[in-house]
User: Fold these one by one.
Assistant:
Number 1:
Amino acid sequence: MRTFATGVCVATTYRDTSGGRRHDAVTVNSLGSISLDPPLVSLSFRKESAFLADLLETGRWVVSILPADARDVARRFAGPRASRVSEIAFLRAKPGERTGALVLDGASWLECALAEKFDLGDHTLVVGEVLATGHDRHAPALVFVHGGYHAITDPRHVSGPGQWGEAL
């Protein structure tokens, strides 16, 4: 699977506690488009994921599709929950209007409500109805392939380390 290029996203959710709302964010590359009518997307998480537990509790999340210049954000939220929690305070984001989960600045995004969940092997697939969207048409996409981050740009115009394409 390391030869299959995937988009890089940060999923966010939260849990309301007696001490207030506790946000969480995690880097994911399992975003899939399921349906256009109604608009449905999917994500997959390890069954024992604390992020998944919070998502199932609230039934709300945001997927921020990262632009190529957000490699550092992707790396910071790819680790265990203990390291991610300290990074939340430094995340440039605002609560989504429809879900309350964090929407990352500069990213394309989908606000989602839980529609279905399926336990499959050692993962749980969650299907979300898309409630709201936003995007940045000009930002090149960030993808993950062969163990590294790369920018997707027009291959007719760029070439170089970390980018795909050849100058024609």
Number 2:
Amino acid sequence: MARATKDDADEEERQRFADRALGFLEDVIYWAIAVVLIIGSIALLIAQFNTMLGLRNAGAKIVMLEVLDGLLLIFIFVELLYAVRSCLRSREIVAEPFLIVGILACIKEIVVLSVEAATLLKDGPQFSRAVVEVGVLGVVVLVLALAAFVLRERRRDVGDPAEQDVRQAEEDQEKATSR
């Protein structure tokens, strides 16, 4: 009987060690992803600035399309960084940031297609295809927004522990600041 208890304790200790080791490796990978996203965001900002400088003699429509296209891509990177941060904080994958990335990606494509569609007015079939694609992307945006809303409401009802931790930290910071 004592031997079984010792074996159970050894097995439990091995499980705890494996959990700690894998948790550490998971954090390292998430941090590496975060670093790559930060570097990518900075590179995109620099590239966006260079694009703006290169287009200073171009038409306003081209400049605005390029700027908006680049900025939406930067927003996608930043939202992915937020998703990684949420995963690190709550130790679980949170779906909402990925839904927002999907919404941003769809909006980015809608903007690009809308400008292209304006140049395709004379070409009936391609214009029709672009209009249908914009419509489908619009529906996808609505579905993703509805899914994000439902998730947020469900989290409010259940009481998300990560969100409660953030609220508690904000309250503690306010108390420390008011002193």
Number 3:
Amino acid sequence: MRFPHPLPHPPEPGRSAELRRRFAEEARSGRPDLTTLCLLMGAVADRALDEAGIDGVQMELDRLAGQLPFRPGGPHAWATAMRDLLGERHGFRGSPADYQRLESSLLHEVLVRRRGLPILLSVVWMEVARRAGAPVYGVALPGHFVVGFGPVDEQVLADPFDGGRVLSGGDAELLVAGATGEALDPSMLAPADPLDVVLRVLNNVRAWGAARPERSEVSLWAVELALLLPSHPARLRYERAQLLVRRGEFLAGAAELEGYAEVVSTFDQPAAERMRGQARAARARLN
């Protein structure tokens, strides 16, 4: 499977609005689909990903799922089968260099490159395994996303970033200790909700954009998609306002600052006044 290269080509305004509408509709549906949300996110980032490309990703995931053995057994057998297929046969894995690439957070690009961040590689693992009937889900360990198979009391973890290596309990403890310096808590092993996965992906995109001020348009679309999720940090409105002002959209940024100030004023009046002052300063930059 091949998709057009290179990135990035943000979509036209009209198409972008339609993609965001579809993203919000899917996120607020009864059973939001993780693949669909990731692909709509990719289409917002890259205008080269059209409807045919989106369908192509779905077909590629189906094709990969069709290469798995029929119901290989329990959780460990599923984890091993996925490692053999995606990690060893098809070469999906990650490296430190992948953290420097926006493509590493876009599902359609990860399928092409066979490289990505832990969470996007985990999305590939989950969506292929789910199509094959596996009891699979994401596990949002602090600092490192992995995949779980089977019920929690029989859980088997695999690390797609490491080619699908099947983890022992000690391995998971080391991952958490390396990321946070803390001990593994059983609550960290709970299945991740699809919308939490999407928010975490968008957080990664925001972090990528924040490190590259010249790519503020990436930070902006990531914030705006996160704001469309049913549950999101309220402070994202303030981040959006700052981005708009930084990009020279002073009126829009001032309006967002004032709107967020109204929310904040119910519990932090001094902070609300500071935001109103920032709104006035933004408008003054038009003079």
Number 4:
Amino acid sequence: MNRLIGLFLLFSLALLAAMGCSNKGGTAEGETDEQIAAGYVETLGYKIVDPAEEVAQYTLDQTMLENLDYMQLWSVQKQEPDAYFGKKIITYRFIVENHPLEQQYPPDEYRIAVNVMLADHEVIGGTSGPLSIIKNLVVAGGEYSIEGKTLKEIKGLDYSQWLEHWKERYGAEVKLR
């Protein structure tokens, strides 16, 4: 009888340990992608002042990387897009405060938008940028990483060097939409 109780306790502990290890990235079971994205934004220290809005949903394929918008988006990611070919990517936009870009773009003229990209219910990257309060438009120029870093800060390359690397890797001819 004692042996049966011991085996039951051992099995219960093993089951609890396995359940604890299956919790990807610390996300609670049943969390939506939107909640995962919001939690990530908060872990970066940003205060969400306008809730999430889904702004994109697509399945990434190599031909998309010939589009300037996708090229700029992936230029400020730490990872190359190859790992996400064939995967559905969902992007949520938040308006935040306490973001490094507020040092460059005064809060009385701009709001900072943060876009969080997810694949398979995990954050894979994102972008950030200023929105003009007057017209609610994104300011012209290149993309910033989710942390407000430039292409040069992320990849260590200037735009022309990066573009050459991109063309070699993806055979892309830039298409404007």
